[in-house]
Amino acid sequence: MFVVPISGTPDRVSSGLQLPTVPAPCPELRLLAALGPQGSPDGVEQILDPLLASWGREPKLVTPVLAGLARERLPGLAERVLDCLARSGQVQVNVYHYTACIGAHERCSYWQQAVQLFCRMLLVNVAPNGVTCNSAMSACDNGRQWQMVLSLLKLMPALRLQPDQVSYGTAMQACTHNSDWQLALRLLSKISDMLVTPDSISCSTAISGCGKGGQWQLALKLLGQMPAARVLPDDITYNSAISACAHSGQWDLALTVLCRMLHSRKQPDQISYIAAISSCSAGEWQVSLSMLFSMPRIMVTPDHFCYGAAVNACSSGSQWNFALGLLTQMPEMRILADEVTGNVGIQSCKRSGQWKVALRILNWMPAVRAVPSQISYNSAISVSAQHGNWQMAISILHRMCRLPLAPNQISFNSAMSACEKGGQWELAQRLLGDMPPASLLPNQITYNSAISACQKCGQWQLAISLLSKMPLLRVTADEISHNAAMSACEKCGQWQVALNFVKAMLENRASPDQFSFNAAVSACEKGGEWQLALSLLFQMPESRATPDEISYNAAISACENKGSWQIALGLLSSMSRRRLVPSLITHSAAISACEKAGQWKLALGLLETMLEMSLEPDLIGYNSVISACEKAPSAEWQLALSILEKMPLRNHVSYSAAISACEKGAQWQMTLSLVKKMSESRVLPNQISFNAATLACFRNRWEFMFRLLGEMLDTSVEPDLFGCGALLTECEQRGLFGGELGLVDGLSVSPRLEFVRGSCAQTDNPDERVQSHASNKKN
């Protein structure tokens, strides 16, 4: 939502202190002001000494002088005068003198000094009046000391003072500043109980408090009850109600209140329209433009805040042409565009990732004499970083360096974030080195971006080096710093280093979080340390880190790699007890663990469980189940084919596993059919596919073996020794010596086939020959 530096309520509730007009001429006031903001006690005494006698006879002559110092915002000098009067003993300091001094502190928001003077009055037995209390409360409100305001309000009855509208209004405004709308409403109800008639300022303050608390319904209810209480809503009241609706995005109600304001013959101002236009979100950009263009018809001139709110609405609705059109229209309408308007447009682009539009707005600003600020450039760098456009981010940073406007920490941090997202770790390190010469100290965000850039590019040594430098530069490393370094180690399989990180964090009482443990578990999984992965998983609850789906996925994958299928299934079942829903990755890892251990029934059961959960298995899951069927003792080729048919997407691994299952089940026709389907499905058969089909045709269908070999050569698949050995055996067994020579001449592996042919000649058993070729292949 577009935020403007003004609100629907007055900046402050007047304390009720009416400063008297200083008589002209007043030479003593000019002489006192010449002493400076504080003034020396001797200088003040020298000026006032000739006046003390007359002031002693008429103390009321002091009040205009103190009031004049209050107008000039010289509270310290006013208090010097008060001290001088008290020391002289010639002038009786009264409540009006103290009230004027407290009012001087109120104007400068010096709430501590105002409270001290108030307490001093009580100590010297000078009874404060209502104006004194109101002035002290207003000073505390200006200093955002809402509790002190309420304390002074509660003190008034004890001092035999009746709180008035100003007292309650100041207290309500203090509650509004603290976003305590409930207390503001209770104070409003007390006004009626104390027989004090609420005025429009009190109601406006209560409505504003409800708006800031998101209670737009109560705000509108208060607005509707005002006529019954014989309080007429004024411009401020309506503006507060419109702002309350705008804060909650109730654009239709904001527009309704604006129309009601017109019907009650109250003239809306720029504040009214800014709030109403700001209430329009992405879907109501047309309404924002309609309100903006209707302003001149009711004699309200749009300013840059109005245009900024409309630009924000158009940008949120992805109406970039309208947003840019409004920006270019401002000079034609003689509306001075400032950096705030441009910043609003750039920030809107940042939220939607429109870095090109943000750059156009940044280039537009100087053309309309709106000087871009650090915020403008930083926002443009940030939106480039958000989009991953590191080149543009660096270009804007260099542009800042050529201007008198120097980059700050935020500029460098945003540029480094862009380099991190773009995987430019070297450039991120260079920016980190450029900061000290520019008199900028890298902070936690800087180092985190640099470490994350190293993490994404696998530079784990550099990530650890940067992390170790942080304490030396008095930069505190947080969980993000450690986690990024650990993630770099995890990507490179440095499980020992990742474990050391977890150990160091525990020793330094910096509890590793969920991300820390996940990175360590994943590092152990990549390093094949499944026992350590399980140990870390079970250690997480003790360190107040709750295992999540990622934790279990990494642990199950570690068990999968080592064939510990029982533990993998145990972890899978324990997820439901922790109210974690196993994902596609979880089931695929468990199926793969069962497949590697030859547990084809369990693998098939997990696949059926996934389908029952409406969880579509991925390619890895389907392939693992087919491989498990192929590894079954009786070669469950029918199940393998059934699963293959169910798959929405198949690759060469899927077909190769199914062909191997059919080969083991002596289904040579089916193997040839699957090889044909692979070509029809534009899946290129590989060595495994052809070898399985070749072995299926061994003994009975030797002629198909030559056809398969021809297809291999046509598809540029290099036959291996295993497949060629089977063919050579057939040639020797059936006396096809000439065919054997032709086969040898057509293969790039022919020099090695002499060894295979020789081994085949040493035995007469074809099965033993094939086993010999298989042994040669392994060797």
UniProtKB/TrEMBL annotation:
Sequence ranges of the PPR repeats: 199-233, 234-268, 373-407, 408-442, 443-477, 478-512, 513-547, 548-582, 583-617, 651-685
Keyword vocabulary terms for this entry: Repeat
Keyword Hydrolase: no
Pfam families according to UniProt: PPR (PF01535), PPR_2 (PF13041), PPR_3 (PF13812)
UniProt keyword Signal present: no
PANTHER family registered for this protein in UniProt: OS03G0856100 PROTEIN, OS12G0638900 PROTEIN
NCBIfam families: PPR
Name used for this protein in its record: Pentatricopeptide repeat-containing protein, chloroplastic
Organism, as annotated: Polarella glacialis (Dinoflagellate)
